[in-house]
Write a structure and sequence with these properties.
single chain; 8-stranded parallel beta sheet; 23 strands; binds iron/sulfur cluster; alpha/beta; 8-stranded parallel barrel; 20 helices
């Protein structure tokens, strides 16, 4: 499999940017040796010149290097000229990108005005009606010829005017033709774009940027990796635009974006980033900048032993094979460890932060859906009785002295583990770094069916080092479960959220990891003061627990809450998306596992809401269309009634549960 390593990134162990060709976009070139560029998209009505200009300026001030503006019809495409003039009059030279869906004539006009156009190959000429149709090779070729005919004029305009083009595939809006031939797969996404690229190349046009977005970070990462493999096969090297679509807002939106974008950046993939949040666009650039800045000095990371064969398939998800010990590993969902080693647990209420609530009169514990599974106590102990599902880890040197070891398990370090004669009869934990690993330890671990590994790293390129460790375990056929442990110090809360999402997410989406353990000290930084997120004062444990469950949800390895797929909104949006999303969230956030899409327009919304169970889609002024899966259930519902109707739909399906009374964890 060594070829795979070469093809989708430079190296899995030594960080370097994957080199693409440089594409000129106004005076801000992309790809090649240029830094990772930051961009975002306006959400104003494109016909409102001043509002769009002013929002663009706010975006530029927040760090955007390109600004995308929707051009759904000729009128908006034409108005891009006024927007550009006004921006230049105010001394803003930021390159503009016209966002096109369905309207080749608007694209051809916009390409004469702005620096770049973005087309979606799923709907530029192709159709999407969710029709099942078997294309013969001849029919398929005829469709391609039709696309060539309709697409060629745009390519010619771009060539003539020096305009760049992004061919941006979205997982949710693949055409019927692609869906029928390749399915809803990363291969379908890649082929959808490459068909258009081949036409461009035939016309000697190479100012191309490519993207493969999906709302599921796992699919998104696989599609980008496959894109690089396919580009290498065809001798292409176009710059890559990274993004997770419909990520939602707030913490969840940031976590989901960081999982997908971060996992690729870790491998040096990506020339420009757009973080899509259901928030005002000026809040997106700081998140993208924070993700990108992490790699400025990454090249100087500590050495990681190279690898020539990778034992996993980077294009399809398969969880690493492990045996199960006491609910960890095997088919069990990844466990969450809460670290209380530096916080005393004096009373039951101290566990509220990690999802446990004790009711004294009934002497009962209530568990939230996001309740941690294990508490690490370091050298401490707990004096009261705990719920039976909760395991306690105690440092071996203290554990060995305990009279009662019930629900208490030892954490060993290498030397202790190798020399100890006393072990728990149920489960033991070994904290280990890759540098600790040698033949003696390897042999002992392999034979120990009661041992869970806790892998740590202090390498700057920590995700890659831990991944290398997983590869070592797989190659040696060691099947003990693994808890991934990371520690972040002296960085802001926003950074802890983004970096941990990247580092845990990058492993979990490849099926690596049976548990997560995060330590940090909360420190408010300057950057948080300008963050969109408002922070209530909360404990480390509460923040960490929520972040870890968020990462497991984003990687779809453990579902503990409702999933929201919300578009970021744009000039097509027909209602206040942020307010509506918040309203729907408030009423449905206890519906564990239900996926609800909130989309701004009927033109792209239904296609792009991917695998949502229910859809709330703007279809006119004050009009909402409700979907169940891909099917329309109710049209033109007045927005004042639409949320109630949506809930009615969920109830009819039997997917509604009443909100538990003890949800104030
Ligand atoms: S789905 Fe949302 S972001 Fe996409 S075009 Fe429609 S309103 Fe704009």
């Amino acid at each position: 499999m060594s070829e795979i390593v070469k093809k989708y990134c430079n190296s899995l162990t030594e960080y370097s940017r994957y080199k693409t060709r440089e594409v000129k976009i106004g005076d801000v070139p992309l790809g090649g040796n240029n830094p990772i560029r930051i961009q975002s998209m306006t959400i104003t009505d494109t016909m409102n010149t001043i509002a769009t200009v002013e929002q663009t300026i706010r975006m530029v001030e927040s760090g955007c290097e390109y600004v995308r503006i929707t051009a759904p019809s000729m009128n908006e495409a034409r108005n891009l000229e006024n927007i550009k003039k006004e921006l230049r009059a105010r001394s803003y030279t930021v390159p503009l990108i016209a966002d096109i869906h369905f309207t080749p004539n608007a694209a051809e006009l916009a390409a004469r005005i702005v620096e770049k156009v973005r087309i979606n190959p799923g709907n530029y000429v192709d159709k999407k009606k969710f029709e099942q149709f078997e294309y013969t090779d001849l029919e398929y070729q005829e469709e391609l010829d039709r696309i060539r005919e309709r697409f060629t004029p745009l390519v010619k305009v771009c060539k003539e005017y020096g305009t760049a083009m992004r061919i941006g595939t979205n997982h949710g809006s693949l055409s019927d033709r692609i869906m029928n031939r390749f399915g809803d797969t990363p291969l379908g996404m890649v082929e959808s774009a490459l068909e258009f690229v081949r036409i461009c190349e035939d016309l000697d046009y190479y100012s191309i940027v490519l993207s493969m977005k999906a709302s599921n970070p796992q699919v998104m990462v696989q599609a980008y990796r496959l894109l690089i493999q396919k580009m290498e096969e065809e001798g292409m090297n176009y710059p890559i635009h990274l993004g997770v679509t419909e990520a939602g807002g707030g913490e969840d939106g940031r976590i989901k974006s960081a999982v997908g974008i971060g996992a690729l950046l870790e491998d040096g993939i990506g020339d420009t980033i757009r973080v899509s949040l259901t928030e005002d666009p000026e809040y997106e650039a700081p998140v993208a900048i924070s993700l990108a800045n992490r790699y400025q000095n990454r090249i100087n990371h500590g050495p990681i032993k190279s690898i020539t064969e990778i034992p996993i398939d980077p294009i399809s998800y398969k969880r690493r094979e492990t045996f199960e010990i006491f609910g960890i590993g095997g088919p069990s969902v990844p466990v969450v460890v809460a670290d209380y080693s530096s916080r005393n647990i004096a009373a039951q209420k101290d566990l509220n932060d990690i999802g446990y609530k004790y009711d004294e009169p009934s002497d009962k514990w209530y568990l939230a859906d996001a309740a941690a599974d294990i508490i690490y106590l370091g050298k401490q102990n707990i004096s009261f009785t705990l719920p039976e599902n909760l395991k306690l880890i105690i440092d071996y040197d203290e554990w060995i002295k305990l009279d009662s070891k019930k629900l208490r398990y030892p954490l060993f370090h290498k030397d202790e583990y190798l020399r100890s004669k006393t072990f728990s009869g149920q489960i033991n934990f070994l904290a280990i770094k890759i540098s600790d690993f040698d033949e003696e330890l390897s042999k002992k671990i392999k034979l120990d069916e009661k041992l869970v590994l806790v892998i740590e790293t202090d390498n700057e390129h920590g995700m890659a080092e831990q991944r290398r460790f997983f590869f070592e375990l797989i190659n040696r056929k060691i099947k003990n479960p693994v808890i991934i442990k990371r520690d972040y110090q002296n960085i802001s809360l926003d950074e802890v959220r983004l970096y941990s999402s990247t580092d845990f997410g990058g492993l979990l989406i490849d099926g690596l990891g049976d548990g997560v353990w995060l330590t940090t000290e909360i420190k408010k930084s300057e950057s948080e003061k300008s963050s969109k997120l408002t922070f209530v004062k909360e404990s480390n444990q509460k923040f960490i627990n929520r972040t870890l469950f968020g990462i497991l949800q984003a990687t779809r390895t453990r579902i503990s809450k409702t999933e929201y797929i919300a578009c970021p909104s744009c000039g097509r949006t027909l209602f206040d998306l942020q307010e509506t999303t918040e309203m729907i969230r408030k009423r449905t956030e206890h519906l564990k596992g239900v996926k609800i899409a909130i989309m701004g327009c009927i033109v792209n919304g239904p296609g792009e809401m991917a695998d949502a169970d229910y859809g709330y889609v703007g279809s006119g002024v004050d009009k909402i269309t409700l979907y169940k899966g891909k099917d329309i259930i109710k049209r033109s519902v007045p927005s004042s009634q639409a949320v109630d109707e949506l809930i009615g739909l969920i109830k009819e399906d039997g997917n509604w549960t009443e909100r538990p009374g003890n949800d104030d964890f």
